[in-house]
Amino acid sequence: MPTHNSHEPEDRKPEEIDTSKGFESSDVRVSGVVVFLLSLCFFAGVTALLAYGVGKAINARMAREDGPRNKWSQTVDVRQLGNMPNSPELQNKMAEITQTFPTPRVQTDDGNQDVADLHAREDLLLSNYTWLGQSREQSQGKVRIPIERAMELLAQRGLPVAAAVEQAPLMTGDDKPAIAVPLTNGFARTGFELDQAAAKKIEAGQQK
Description:
Blueprint: H1 30-66, H2 88-100, H3 112-127, E1 130-131, H4 136-139, E2 143-144, H5 147-157, H6 191-207
Antiparallel strand pairs: 1-2
């Protein structure tokens, strides 16, 4: 089977290729590549000059608005100070100032310890006999009893019975209100307190 094109004349000579340039001149135009690179460099330089000029103009306007430099507007290199040593006296002073600072104070943690302290104070009041005031005279002889004892007395004596209240007739479409029983007693330990209690149990078991 012949492989040549039957439409081409048989006496046609193959095209001679000029190899003196070192590359295929019919596919690559060096002038176009050079023009593109030069244009790219030109636009990059113009953009850099514009950005520099805009920055200088903004800084000059800010300097005019801020006024002349003084001792309060000077830039100080704090790296020359180095690492300041820890001072126990300074730390104690800061702790004292923090404790005496009026409320509301900025919390030093995420508040878990504050909630744990609050529950600890509540437990002291709920589990012990305490005066209602700072002293016996201020409390006028009234004592706060533990909650367990209060529940026992309430179970023995019962709740006081309130006088019957006449209820107005329901309007059309109204339903008698139903009292829903709460799912909990309204008090629950936080995760932080549960973790502390578990750690104390582990520590007590290790000491035994």
